[in-house]
Design brief:
The chain has 209 residues and is α+β, with helices and mostly antiparallel strands. 21% of the residues lie in helices and 28% in strands.
Length: 209
């Protein structure tokens, strides 16, 4: 006699319209949070920020552009001898100007090159001098001395250009002078002294009455 087969009773669970049994089984349970999302995540999606907010919690304000141009004039490695030994550092000379009549020179030291340049740049932007420029050139001939360096500057007609070299050319260019001729009357080839002498010469300029 064949064994009797027992039929198991199957319970049917009602499924919402539009869902299959597989979708209903695999659907994760939602937890409380903003907008019904799991764990209170952002409603703008993964990796997205709220509109109007940038990095650092700001409102996307544009930073003011720096109007000054800078140029590294000289970089030297210096040593200071102390009781505990020698201390090595870097000295940077930076010229900053807006090419509109303002120029400055900054000298500072740092433990590495980048630190020395940053400190010298900030100092150059603080120590600015105003230069009198008339029709792209200086109003009159001027001579200045700083230490052993002696610099002579002469005005030139339009189109002549910068007849200068080294530190004098860099400072005149960043100051906004387009036509000038210069001459180093001393035998000094020190860039720092020549640059300081040029700044002293520009300070002496006076407008013609």
């Amino acid at each position: 006699m064949a064994d009797e087969i027992k039929k198991e009773e199957t319970k049917f669970i009602p499924i919402p319209t539009g869902e299959t049994p597989t979708d209903s089984a695999n659907k994760p349970a939602q937890k409380g949070g903003f907008g019904g999302q799991r764990g209170g995540g952002s409603p703008f999606g993964s990796g997205q920020r709220r509109p109007g907010f940038g990095r650092g919690g700001g409102f996307g304000k544009d930073r003011a552009k720096d109007e000054f141009q800078t140029k590294l004039l000289d970089l030297a490695r210096v040593t200071r001898v102390t009781g505990g030994g020698k201390r090595m550092s870097f000295r940077a000379v930076v010229v900053a100007g807006d090419k509109k009549g303002k120029v400055g020179i900054g000298i500072d030291k740092g433990k590495d090159v980048s630190q020395a340049i940053d400190k010298a740049t900030r100092r150059a932007k603080r120590d600015l001098v105003s230069v009198i420029i008339i029709d792209g050139t200086i109003p009159h001939e001027v001579e200045a001395k700083y230490g052993p360096a002696v610099i002579l500057l002469k005005p030139q007609m339009k189109g002549r250009g910068l007849v200068a070299g080294g530190a004098v050319r860099t400072i005149c260019d960043l100051a906004g002078i387009k036509n000038v001729s210069s001459k180093i009357l001393s035998g000094s080839k020190n860039k720092l002294n020549n640059a300081r002498a040029t700044i002293e010469a520009l300070k002496k300029l006076k407008a013609k009455n």
